[in-house]
User: What shape does this take?
Amino acid sequence: MRRPRREPLPDINERLLRFEQVRVIGPDGGQRGVMSSREALNQAREEGLDLVLVADKADPAVVKIVDYGKHKYEQSKLKKDKKPKGQDVKGVKLSPNIGEHDVQVIVKRARAFLTEGDKVRVVCRFRQRELSHPEVGRRKIEAVIEAVADLGRPDKDPTLSGREMVVVINPTPTGSKKDGKTENKQDGGKEV
Assistant: This one.
């Protein structure tokens, strides 16, 4: 049985005595200067705080007098904030015999997803007897695509796979010069 990998112990307090000299930053963020690591540790203990390594590659190493628990929390929060928001794929479903009002409800939901920057996967599910007329479902999907054309456009035409016709609509990037040029080409006009 394999043992779980243990996290390395943090560089705080006595573990920093391996450095002869350290540059100390106080809890208020102010510089306290260069001193021996033992002296810095004593200052931290007098204030009831921890001595935490900030930059070990610097010469001399930089340490900060802080509450370690609070410091660790702030670091994890910074890491979380740096993660980019991924683009989600939201789905809407319809059927070939869906009513006009229901199509408008689906369009409204799809528009909301596209304005949030998410992709929309439109699925038209057929019953066995409805598979003989896939053009009915295609028209419903194309009605949704036309209704959200100002916010997004599909990668490719709706495709029938099994009993489902699927299309993914990508949101159009806002403020892009590239889109203006492609629209001119599609209209038959010349590129400016």
Notes: The radius of gyration is 30 Å. The mean pLDDT is 83. Strands lie at 21-25, 31-36, 50-55, 61-66, 89-94, 119-125, 152-154, 159-161, 164-171.
